[in-house]
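Quick question about two entries, pasted in order.
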Amino acid sequence: MISIITPVYNEEHSLIELHARIQKTLSKLNQQFEIIFVDNGSTDDSLKIIKKIGENNNNIKYLSLTKNVGHQGGIWAGINSTNNTIVIIDADLQQPPEIIEQFIKKWKAGFKIVKTKKINDKDSRWWKKFFSSIFYKLINKFTKLNLFEGQSDFCLIDSQVVKEIKNFSEKKSFLRGILNFTGFESCFIEYSVDKRKSGISKFSKNEYFSFALEGIFNYSRAPIILLFWFGFIISFLCLIYIVYLLIIYFFFKEISLPPGWITTSILLMFFGSINLVALSMLGQYILLLIEDNKKRPEYFIKEKNF
């Protein structure tokens, strides 16, 4: 049995076509499957349409969350609701359901994780492509995850891997990082990103930025190491400047400096530059620890049919 997990947020115009294409793809493979729609706090008629699709159809399941918990939250709500091998696919039809056939072939060949790599991305948002490129370069430089540019959450995950990742006690906010961290046998399939069926992307600039930061801070000590070396370099430069000021003070009496100017300059440069950077980076790690230790539920289910 394969569970198709589809997080849904205001996608009323694409759901019927999505279901039809998934049904057609898996039916010709003679593969048992179920579709788990995760209504992620939609404010349109998405849930009504999901219920209509599920009428007299036992392989259609849904759960409706009390509010929108972000794309990753919706995915994990679906993952936590099944122990089967899963396929994760967005509901906006930018990820072609027909690729699932290739997922299953790779899975039956022995791969535990089948990832995807975007090519020919038709998304018109230039800033997304620009910052995405920078993100993958940074995270691969600072971590050992070995993510590849264009990697997405459109993937197949074997039931063995599903069981393992569900045991992670940390706040799960970066699925592709977790999958690469496990080290299970994996491969990837390239696919062209289609245009949205309707509407606009619900992923804002702020959400992309937060997603990138969480990925880096969750899997890397590099910011702390960079902070150490940055502090060391700043301290060294300040030391040189301190020596320079002391030379002026003791050996060049003709140069008049305002009283207390040297002391004030040294203190402001040294402590100000280091403290601002140090506190911001340490704050990120402390925030992650606090969030993990709260043990709050990441979502609440308002309604489900299974």
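Here is the second entry:
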Amino acid sequence: MKLEPDLIKEILQFCEDKLPDDDQMWSASNLEIKGFDSKQIIFHAKLLHENGYIKGEIADTLSERDFDFDSLTMNGYQYLALLKGKAWNTAKGMIHEFGVIFAEGAIRAIIDKYSPIILP
């Protein structure tokens, strides 16, 4: 599946806006993000979870794969702050141009190069 940088940003923004939520359980399959289907949303949520940007649980059953959201991690908050900055457009363009696959350091390295903010 193709990496969608805009979807990553949208998922992180959703988590910041809505989580934690004691009144409602949020699953990736229930999110509606314009231009993306549930399989794409679930795939990207799992990537963010596996790389330490969001907390939650992978909810796989025999018939369906899903992800249940809990909250952003500190790295998730910091990453989202970077994505909101000017460096995001540069990083996003480079990702599409070079076809960089998602890895914990790939996007950070691009943003760090073009942003004065330094992550721990």
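Reply: Strands lie at 54-58, 67-72. The mean pLDDT is 79. Hope that helps.
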